[in-house]
Specification:
single chain; mainly alpha; two-stranded antiparallel sheet
Length: 691
């Protein structure tokens, strides 16, 4: 890591503000989009090298030195980052040099990506200092050390100098070893390998000898341009490049400092459980909530507000007790108001917002802020889905659902933002009480609205189209599909019109019986394919939706999917033996599933397992005598018995509850029932004789 830490400290001590700014700016420019390897990655690379050596039993001497230098340089780079973080935390805590705060905080943000450098950044002093700069508190953080700053900096410089001198001696000793090794050219490869391993170990021991502690183990050796970093993706939410300066002026400079401090705190909360715990203990949650409450009526979204929301999302996602606390303190009301402000909602009725088709699309800045609000609302409402809300809570949730309808129906300037916004809206809708979602359907029917039996289906149609896009993408199927599948399933159970509309869209009248239900590119074909997916949750969600669209009727379900695809859900529900539907509180209408003329003509020839008309196959027993048929049957029985004994297959059967159980269990149950019934009959006979 090419950082002159001693030079930075000297500039701070001498008051050379220009020198500090130049050196930190160069560091920030070089590492702006880099992320540090964590300890697991380093251990993995060491393990890979060791396995390669054990496999080949020989390693080139030069390569060994290179590996040693590489790991030694990584340790030295870590030590520099630790010391730099320690120095900058002390520097920003002094309260002066305000124009250097932004560049110092940007350096701390880069350093806070490394979990091994977080020690100086997660102390109460550092967290309170950052919170004050972020505007979350007005309390002053006291300086941790009682000694003057000059002594603090001098101690670090002295330790770095001592470590540098020790490293120079190590390099000289290593040079003598290399010179001696070069004179002995007759040594075989195995001996060279042994020497290289020994020297690597000695070098590590010498480099890390002493008791200086993690903040002073600084070594100035090896390749100075080696970086234990990897290139990361730049956050597209940033509207300006990292190196650009904001316009001059007190307000802009203050906003830039607050934003950088919030970014550092986001990294700390994400990477450190200790920072999460202290965030609560230092009452920073209250300050953040007050900030967000006061910014509800803001005229336009800002990057500072975005990072305030991002920090709130992280802390509520990582600390469940804080999300519960926020909910109890009126968090739903606060963030519902924030969502209303971001959407610029105008009310037409109690639970109906005006949806203007001519309104401009949502800007990227506003869409990202809305997404953060939706994520926070999900964190504080995720457990309310199965609860019975009070009258006041139900009114609050219906008010929220009315605005979520806007999130579904409005478009963003970028198509990716529209898809992301709808995805988080679906997640939040699936977390809210089901009885509050009727707000999506009470909107009056407009001339250009999609409708079913006089009910507005615009939102339902949007959800179905959203599900289709997720089906077609095929990316992260479980994470992206299960929320919308569950939401549509529960909505179909609760609302007859919704079920009817979605059924017409997904399960149209069956006409083509020449193909398997899973073959094709329609929505039904894709959903049926998911019914045999490897992921259990995903296949059950897809099967549940089709089962509900079939009114939980087993015969109709098998008709549309084939018995082979339906067996998984039927076995789970205990319906393999037949039955109309599971015990459910859903009340379906009595309309019948009318068959098409094409289906009626082919119905008798449809294979119930595959769900299609199979080509006629020749009779395998044709031309065989009765004795040959009997021999073939015995041979098959022997094969099945052998497979069963070797536990390659396990014969299964359906019990009285309609569930799959091993045949041995069925046999034992039947014998028990026979014995029980026999004993009962004998008891009755004896009683009759006595009488």
């Amino acid at each position: 890591m090419d950082v002159d830490l001693v030079g930075i400290i000297q500039c701070i001590k001498q008051g050379d503000e220009n020198g500090v700014q130049i050196q930190l700016h160069e560091f920030n420019k070089e590492y702006a989009q880099c992320f540090f390897f964590d300890s697991e990655e380093r251990d993995r690379r060491k393990k890979t090298k060791l396995e390669e050596f054990r496999k080949n039993k020989v390693r080139d001497y030069a390569d060994s030195d290179s590996d040693c230098d590489q790991y030694d340089e990584e340790d030295r780079g870590l030590s520099i980052r630790q010391n730099l973080a320690l120095v900058l935390v002390r520097f920003i805590g002094t309260g002066d040099k305000c124009h250097l705060l932004r560049v110092s905080l940007r350096t701390l943000r880069i350093l806070s990506r490394d979990k091994k450098v977080l020690g100086p950044l997660v102390t109460d002093n550092a967290l309170l200092t950052l919170a004050k700069l972020a505007g979350l508190t007005t309390s002053d953080a006291s300086v941790e050390s009682g000694e003057p700053d000059s002594d603090f900096y001098n101690n670090i410089i002295a330790s770095l100098s001592e470590a540098k001198e020790m490293n120079c001696r190590t390099d000289e000793d290593q040079g003598d070893v290399e010179a001696n090794d070069q004179q002995d050219e007759c040594v075989d490869e195995d001996a060279i390998s042994d020497i290289s391993i020994a020297n690597s170990g000695d070098l590590d021991n010498i480099s890390w000898s002493g008791s200086h502690g993690p903040s002073v183990n600084e070594m100035q050796g090896g390749s100075r341009h080696h970086k234990a970093l990897e290139r990361g993706r730049k956050d597209r939410r940033e509207s300006k490049m990292e190196g650009e300066e904001v316009e001059e002026g007190g307000a802009s400079e203050e906003e830039a400092v607050r934003k950088e401090a919030l970014k550092v705190m986001c990294n700390l909360v994400y990477n450190s459980t200790w920072a999460q715990e202290r965030f609560s203990a230092l009452r920073l949650m209250c300050g953040l909530t007050e900030r967000l409450s006061s910014n509800v009526s803001g005229s336009s979204p800002s990057s500072v507000q975005f990072y305030e929301l991002r920090l709130m999302f992280l802390i509520t996602a990582l600390r469940r007790e804080l999300s519960t606390q926020l909910q109890q303190e009126g968090g739903v009301s606060i963030f519902t108001a924030a969502l209303e402000s971001c959407l610029d909602a105008q009310w037409k009725d109690q639970y109906e917002c005006v949806l203007d088709p001519a309104a401009p699309p949502i800007s990227p800045e506003a869409s990202q802020q809305i997404i953060e609000i939706l994520k926070i609302l999900f964190n504080i409402t995720y457990s309310t889905h199965r609860q019975e809300p009070s009258e006041d809570d139900a009114a609050l949730y219906r008010h929220l659902v009315a605005m979520l309808r806007l999130c579904l129906m409005k478009k963003c300037l970028l198509s990716d933002d529209t898809d992301e916004l709808q995805g988080h809206t679906v997640n939040l809708l699936s977390a809210l009480p089901l009885q509050c979602l009727n707000v999506l359907l009470i909107v009056p029917v407009e001339p250009n609205s999609t409708q079913c039996q006089g009910v507005n289906m615009d939102c339902v149609n949007t959800l179905v189209l959203f599900m289709e896009r997720r089906l077609e993408s095929g990316d992260k199927m479980k994470e992206k599909l299960t929320p919308v599948l569950n939401l549509l399933t529960e909505s179909c159970r609760a609302h007859r019109e919704t079920r009817r509309y979605i059924r017409e869209h997904i399960l149209p009248p069956l006409r083509d019986t020449s193909h398997r239900p899973e073959e094709g590119s329609t929505v039904k074909n894709r959903l049926v394919r998911l019914m045999t997916h490897l992921d259990t949750d995903l296949k059950h969600c897809a099967a549940d939706l089709i089962f509900v669209l079939c009114k939980e009727n087993v015969g109709r379900f098998v008709k549309y999917t084939g018995y082979g695809n339906a067996a998984g859900l039927l076995a789970t529900r205990g319906l393999l033996g037949g039955g109309s539907r599971t015990a459910s509180s859903s009340q379906y209408s009595s309309d019948s599933d009318s068959d098409t003329e094409e289906y009626r003509q082919a119905k008798d020839r449809i294979n119930p397992v595959t769900g299609r008309v199979e080509a006629e196959q020749p009779d395998p027993m044709e031309g065989m005598t009765e004795e040959e048929k009997e021999e073939e049957a015995k041979r098959l029985i022997m094969i099945f018995n052998k497979l069963s004994r070797d536990k390659i297959i396990q014969p299964m059967g359906v019990d009285s509850d309609g569930k799959l159980v091993p045949m041995s269990g069925l046999r034992d149950n039947s014998l028990t029932e026979e014995v029980k019934s026999g004993s009962e009959n004998e008891g009755e006979a004896e009683e009759g004789e006595k009488n």
